[in-house]
Design goal:
By secondary structure, the protein is of the alpha/beta class. The chain has 2 domains: about 350 residues, Zn peptidases (Aminopeptidase); about 110 residues, Alpha-Beta Plaits (2-Layer Sandwich), CATH 3.30.70.360. About 40% of the residues lie in helices and about 20% in strands. Helix 2 runs antiparallel to helix 4, helix 4 runs parallel beside helix 14 and helix 6 packs across helix 7. The longest helix is centred in the C-terminal third of the chain and has 23 residues. The relative contact order is 0.18.
Amino acid sequence: MSLEATALSYLSANEESLSELAKDIWDHPELGLHEYRSSRLIADELEKAGFSVEMGVARMPTAFVASWGEGGAIIGILGEYDALPGLSQQVSAAREPVEDGFPGHGCGHNLLGVASLGAALAAKEALERDGIRGTIRYYGCPAEETLVGKIFMAKAGLFDDLDAVIAWHPGYVNSVQGRVSTLAMNSFKVNFRGVAAHAGAAPHAGRSALDGVLLMDVGVNYLREHVIPEARIHGVITDGGKAPNIVPAYAQVWYYLRAPRRGQVDDIYARMLDIAEGAALMTGTTHDVEFLTGCYELLPNDVIGGLMLERMKQVGGPGFTDQDRDFAKQLQRTLPQRAAEIEGVLKITHTEVTRKDLGDPLCEKIIEPRLEQGVMPYSTDVGDVSHVAPTGSLSTCCHALGIPLHSWQYVASTGSGIGFKAMMLAARTMGLTMLDLIMKPDVLKAARDEFVEKTGGKQYVSPLPGGAAPH
């Protein structure tokens, strides 16, 4: 039996147990940095299979690294398992929380971590059977939703010795990342501190921290005209004082700053810090900056992406049933409109892809990736990993056409047969790709050469300040 046949046979034999594990994590959703049960479930499976596991890496209790093998190429695969707040939902086409206000897997990370687990175990099974040298490294990455896990793991150097990285994310199309990047980002809070006073009797004795926040926001709004059009600055006032008759001694504003390139974020961020200083000077207050996290844009690797696409075509579609299609249609009927989402899918895959190719209600074909350069309007901490080692990423159809991420409809999908079948397509594709990267040194070298060319040979520098701690 060939290596690929062994890997595929392993995944077929363990499809039910992997689906049960994904459902178990779905049944017990945990927020970022609190995924104690979910991370342990996956780590236990890796330990049982002979991987050595180190828990609590990069100062995060729910982060871990599991390794198997020695010598040869070192191939990493990324796993996630954090849920989203307030999205508790049953597997139902009506809004029915399991428990009001509780988390739910509205981004499919219950599938993400388990598909990567299946791929790692399948590749290990094939290599071990034939006594082939190679190293598989599974990364248990917490708190992706708040862009924390991989950022701190990258800063700790945990990806530095990898030859290549495999990643995926639940989506609508069955395809690879292609040449589509994401936005680099900084998340930071600015705390202003002033002097409290009676707002009616002695406002002159006070120094308003809220005035500092408001003037900073005015300055940021004027800045928008003078930054690149692709940049995005969004913020909220998290604390503006306690009562109108008290001059606020403390106030806080929280910003997300995004741009297509890390250097662009750095430049705009420096200008925002100047605005904060100016606002403090104008109001006679003091201020400090609380840097929460920052990430790089995604750097897709064409060589690894092409390899993944070949393997996905070989594996074939997710194999949805009539029951899956019926459930998908029921979920679609709960949406107010779907046209905008459909058009969005078309734009990020390939301009020549038709709606017929995409499928409705579910994508059942393998879709060619977009050949043009593009940027998705969100950020991911996979971006930092992709600036440390050559990284390829894919998506599979985990929901009905038109359903938005971070919705209760998405939660219902990721706990159903739709999600589990899509998860297995991802596992099969990634498992075979890992074997290819270990067995084909020429392909691995081409991926590295592309990486060096795209990075200009520059070493990754973490956007996190020296003393930053996971939030």
